[in-house]
Amino acid sequence: MGKGYKEIADELELEIASGKLPLGSTVPSKRELCEQFGVSNVTAGRVHNELWARNLVLKIRGSGVEVLGPFIPPRQKMIYPKIRKLTFLHNVKSGPLRGSQVLISDSLRRHAEERKVEYNEEYGEQVPFSGVRTALKTLDPSHAYVISVQNPQPNKLPVSYLCLMHPDIHSVLVDGIFPQSYCVVCDHFDGMEKLVDYVYSRGARKVLYLDRFYLLGNSNVSERFYGCRMACERRGMGFRVIDTACYEDVLEILRSKDVPDAVMCPQDSVAVRLLRMLDSAGMKKRPLITGFDGFSVIGDDPRIATIRLDRKTMARIMAEIIFTKPLNPVIYDVVRVPGQFVPPQRITNR
Description:
This protein is an alpha/beta fold. Helices cover about 40% and strands about 20% of the residues. The protein folds into 3 domains: about 5-65, Orthogonal Bundle (Arc Repressor Mutant, subunit A); about 85-185 and about 315-335, 3-Layer(aba) Sandwich (Rossmann fold); about 190-310, Rossmann fold, CATH 3.40.50.2300.
């Protein structure tokens, strides 16, 4: 009896893991599978579908299936690359967020200079799908990358994604989590614990959490939400969430009889915008309002409590990973860095 499609897929997965089918290559076509394993064309098609379901291939080209991730099977042994150049791939050319990334870049530069490694920073460009294969070939294993989270554009893929998926490129992702990658993020759970502890100490017993009011991307949104909810539940506090992304809905709740003692936001931008709306509405009595991560695209407000990210420590950890850790962890390796609690500089009326 011949092999089934899952057994054939297992063999091909081993070939991908061993490097016989490297990134950018193609697995055997249906015709080649029929000849090699003596199976029907239907079974060969099921093999391709199974590889697709396992996230071992990205897309079909002609009669073959191209090996392009996003999942790269783990190596059989640890490899410590010789790094000659370190590049910081940032995702913002200007604006408030750029200042935070400059702080990371300056710290990374110092660590690279201490090790006599060339350093530069680049804006993470987007590559059209048709140019992915060519872009992969230009990546140099002697170059390491620290990568800031970047969202893809329609029909394009960020160069940073290619670095993260490439099995021979040493990389670290900051502010996000990606399969089989080293990741350095703020400890959102610790941060929410500190913020909830603050509002509880100020007498708050009912919390309204504003979820999905600002697109943070990656894992930040969900981790901050669950961190806040669990911290409230541990203290026996009432927890309510609103995810309409409409500030008028929040104002309606604050005007109702069931007014929360604190409104907790996933980012400073949300908290600052809410405060300005309360100012415009003339609401003098208002709940405690908290933000997170110290970042606001519309300016700061001294009336909110927040968590300030420790970018220097995060940059130091990124450099240590690049220069001391082996390529690609088996699943992923996430380092969570606690932030600093910053109380409000001016107390609002309650």
